[in-house]
Amino acid sequence: MFTLFSLFLVLEARIQQLQSDFVLDVQFINVPSSGRGVSSGRTPSRGSPQQKSDNAKSGQSATQGASKHQPIRWMEKLSQEEKSKLKRQQRLQQKLQKKLKKRSQETLTINPIGSSLIPPGTTMSSASRESRSDKKLSSGLSAAVPSPFVEIAAAAGKAAAVSKQASRLNQRDSKTKVFEKGDSEKRSIDSRGREEGLAEVKELKKRLNQRVRPRSFSGTPEMQEQGNAKRPCEDIQSSIRCYLEACVFVGEIERSHNFLLSQHRTVNQRKHLNTDVYNIVMRMWAKEGSLHHVGSIFILLEEAGLKPNRGSYAAALECMGRSPNCSPKVITRCLTQMEVDGISVDELFSQCGFRQDERDMLLKAINTVYPGYKPSLNLHTDLCSSPLVQDFYTQREHHTYPKLVFTQAELRERFKRQLSVERACTVTIDSVEAAMPVTANMAKMRGLLAEQRAQWQKILLQALRESKMILAETNTKNYRPNLYPYLCLLEDREYVDIMIQSVSNMPPSGELLKVLARDLGNRVYAKYCVQQKYRNETVEKLGTIYDAYTGLLAKDTEECITLPREQWCKLEVEQSSGPSLQGGETSWSHILTLQLGTYMMDLMVKNLKINSDILNPEHNRTLIPILYHMYTFRSIKQVGFIKPHPILTQMQQEAVENKLTFDSYVMPMLCPPVPWTSFKFGAYLLTPTKLMRSTDGATQHDLLLEKCQDLHAVFDSLNQLGNCAWKISKPVLDTIISIFNDRGSEKLDIPPPLSEAPKIPHFNPQDPTYTSSEKALMKKEAINARKKYGEMHSLRTDALYKLSIAHHMRDEIFWFPHNMDFRGRTYPCPPYFNHLGSDVTRAMLVFAEGKPLGPKGLDWLKIHLVNLTGLKKRSSLQGRLDYANTIMEDILDSADNPLNGKKWWMEADEPWQALACCKEIANAVRSPDPSQFISHFPVHQDGSCNGLQHYAALGRDTIGATSVNLVPCEVPQDVYSGVAQQVEELRAKDAKKGLKIAQVLEGFINRKVVKQTVMTVVYGVTRFGGRLQIQKRLKETDEFPQEHVWEASHYLVRLVFNGLKEMFTGTREIQDWLTESARLISKSGHTVEWVTPLGLPIIQPYHRKRRQLLQSSHVQKNAFPPNFIHSLDSTHMMLTSLHCYSAGLTFVSVHDCFWTHALTVDTMNKVCREQFVALHSQPILQMLSKFLLHKYCAEPPWCSAFFVYDVGVSGTVHIQLAVKGGYF
Question: Which stretch is the leader sequence (predicted)?
């Protein structure tokens, strides 16, 4: 017994040591550097320096040729030692087994100590076989299995070896006891003692697993129960499905079938296959009408121990429908077996996705047996379970949903235009710099670039075709996957166009290889998805449903109280014949897009060259690459980097090209977006779009969303935001473009051209005339000049993109489809030009629909203008209106002469929006009747430090709630000014005591200095971060003595934090509870999850990596409080959005800043306050506490006490008072 327990303690420590090996660490797959090599899956061992070096250098081995570079010698030696050690252990184990079988009648199973790593009931020999298989898998996995999965498999092999060693030690102990005891009585006693010890160890091991298991994987509870193997297995399955689907798409029938057979025949690979993988090939043979091949796939399923699912039977019956000689008895037997498996015929039509005529063939087969059968499809009308929106969905008699300003025919025409844009996948538009006069040098450079691009296209086309020929003949015997089918999805010229576009858009300072590869892979995937939809014949059906859907939105149709999502789902059910809009295709993984993109980038680096004398004929003519693969540092990591040659950069800059090419999803939509009806379907017509944005490679969000069936309120809110139509304010746009093309203006946030950038000094470091200090100074100046140049180029390009897109859409009406991040915060899908942009971008946008100002609309425009100036923050609404009336002369002058008048608008906090508002006010006051003036201008209502509002409401803080306008007051409260005043009082006291820094700060403490720190402290900013914010503000103050900046920022950040702690007592308590809860959760190996009051599941996407457990835990705990508040903020916005929509309002949001017409500001304010009260009338913290207890404390009881939170102890303020407030 003593020996067993000693062994248990040793193994417990060893298993805890190995836990870091079970953490999923997403690395980049190794990709060949030439067309002659493919990713074979032979990645270095998990802990090998080769892999560490690759990851440290570039995040992916883009330049390591799989066919040329071999593992270094000591790595091979280490691998051989591991294999020989494993073989010795296996031989010793077999000898012990033979001796034990002679001495004992019982067959000993594997020691329970290793039961968590090897399935229960596995015998010693089978465990040994599995260990050997895992070892082989970890060292030579095929390319279908990306490197992360190799690492997981290797970790599993190592864990199995630990279990096997435990078994060997226990057997050795048993053997010693058997041979030392001579008589049978003692052997019997020892046997009973051993059994008791093993039973006790098994129980202890079970308890240990409850503590250790959460460290292995941070996902949903169901996945955690199944251990570490399921996640990598699912990812491998996804890679295999993608490969098979690509083969089927390009017509490689033999390749796909043989690949499936090769995977099936290999035991190690078969475990990664599920029924859906077999269904892909079965579906392919069903299209061919080959019933024999479909039957063979069913046999493979049975051999693999898998059961056919709905997709299997649908494919089989489809094949029978295509076979004219198929006997009805065969169909009957299939239907009978399907019924035995618990699958009904109706489920095939309601749960399966169909392509082309698959549904018709399925129905034909069934009608052969049951002639009168028709599918019964029911519309799911489940209501959202959240009590916050139950009345919204059940009581609609007073709802008046808004209509668009288009007829049904106009919307149908717009749909066709948008369809053509997305089918092309790219849009080429005029640059706003095209208005500049063309010089001789510009014309010359444009001609040279055009000539070079034509040559590059030919070179890339030839290189691509040669590489495809090589790949087509690679791995043909063992059918291991490579990139060949992915390079056949599109026409060769389309791949070349994508690569040429990448060169044209590359910044002169270069870009990360990972970013470029991701973009290249995503462009191929987007085109592939579009072609899939056309081949599957879903586009025609999409048009039919959209034509009918426009009847809900058009102004010339009858009003109804059906939401867009509900109407779309209803139309899908009514028009269920033919292909499904969602065909069930597998989304490409991040690893796959990187692998394909890196391959294409490698072709570009190797083949794109230019003459060295193209700009200077005096130079010797040699062909030089236009792209270079180099390395740079990001933080402390060395990463791969692609940099263009200076010759190419110079040519592009001097050409000042008059055309810009964008991906189609970058542009706003020309028709209303497709409503979100599931987490996989919505937004663009053809372009694939994710409902929830996530970090590259993260899939936990998708898994949670797929399991969640109660997202109606979230979908409807996103649909409402996306259905808002926009147009361009042409006068504002023209003014901005004139300044942009005239050297810009840093004061007005218009970036100047690169001609205004500081010149980069050049010097020879070997020049002896310079001293070492002079060289150091010149080197520093050169570094600063390059940095400034890079910043100016980035800002100028960003402004160029935005202005060019706005100019392209100047005569259009357009829409922004929306999705959200992992916290539920909503964002427009087009990345460059949208209403979430800067002051410049927002000023150019107005609502497409106009509404009369009404009796109070003009007043709201004036109040909004004063808000944009940043003045009168503590004044009442009437006070702000009175101030606006006193400066009407400046307002009208700004509207009439923005660039040549008094320029009053330029002094505002948001100058361009202020100018746009001045123009709207001028047009209104000059109209015959301002109350009837049709205004398109959006009026904003911003929350008073929204994060602190939520904290004050959660903690019921009286002082805090008052300072953020949750309690009615005669004048609006400004928390930033309040904190600044409190800090000033504390400073004055310290100054009287003789504190020097307090005396230096006299007269410099104001709202601007403390605002950013106060705003972000609720979102988790630390004292260090707050000090940097205050330091930046003090540096911007010219009068402040710069030698005291560091000391003053240290002093002020302490006063700000202390002041906030006094004002918001409950806030700190809640923050501390959330932080400590997240610390315990992350320490146990989980990522933090919760559910919003609207039922949206949220998981923090901060994943642990090897040797980074402490850092990951730190991020998890610090991020939880701000992320939780962000999720409440998004919930409040969604509630406001839904109820504004039901009231017929035009509503959009920029997180906590809500926009509507001047006519409906009062209504929106009322809805906003009502929904805030409704949200915080729910027991939010109690529900969170209950969720944490259920999720993380179901088994181990050690942390359950801390997750209980008493919500009613912090304060006494009544949240219902917020409804009566005049400010928010």
Answer: 1-20
Strand partners, 1148: 1155
Which residue is it, tokens 């919760």? 1090
Active-site residue, 942 included: yes
Residue identified by tokens 């409704």 is 1174
Would you say residue 210 has pLDDT above 50? no
CB 209 within 8 A of CB 116: yes
Q: What is the model's pLDDT at position 494?
A: 95
- DSSP secondary structure letter of residue 485: G
Q: Let me know if 519 is a catalytic residue.
A: no
Q: How many CB atoms lie within 10 A of CB 140?
A: 13
Q: Among residues 66, 87, 103, 41, which one has the least CA distance to residue 236? A: 41
| pLDDT class of 834 with cuts at 50, 70, 90 | very high
Note the Cα 1038 to chain centre separation in Å.
41
* Beta-sheet strands, E only, within 649-784: 659-663, 674-678, 681-683, 725-728
d(CA 1186, CA 312): 41
Instruction: Please give the helix or strand (H or E) that residue 290 lies within, else none.
Output: none
Q: For residues 887 and 896, give the distance between their C-alpha atoms in angstroms, rounded to a whole number.
A: 15
Q: How far out from the chain centre does Cα 333 lie?
A: 46
For every residue of 1120-1161, DSSP letters joined together read HHHHHHHHHHHHHHHHHHHHHHHTT---EEETTEEEEEGGGH
Amino acid present at 1195: E
Catalytic residue among 851, 919, 1152, 1191: 1152
- Whole-number Å distance between alpha carbons of 538 and 686: 10
SS3 state at 780: helix
Of 1011, 1117, 1129, 1191, which one is the catalytic site residue? Answer: 1011
- Stretch 1078-1085: mean pLDDT: 84
d(C-alpha 1100, C-alpha 1069), whole Å = 22
Task: Indicate yes or no: pTM above 0.85.
Answer: no
Q: How many residues does the chain have?
A: 1224
Q: Cα 284 from chain centroid?
A: 32
Among 173, 492, 547, 942, the active-site one is 942
Q: Express each pLDDT in 975-1025 by its tens digit.
A: 788 888 888 888 898 899 889 999 888 888 888 888 888 888 777 778 888
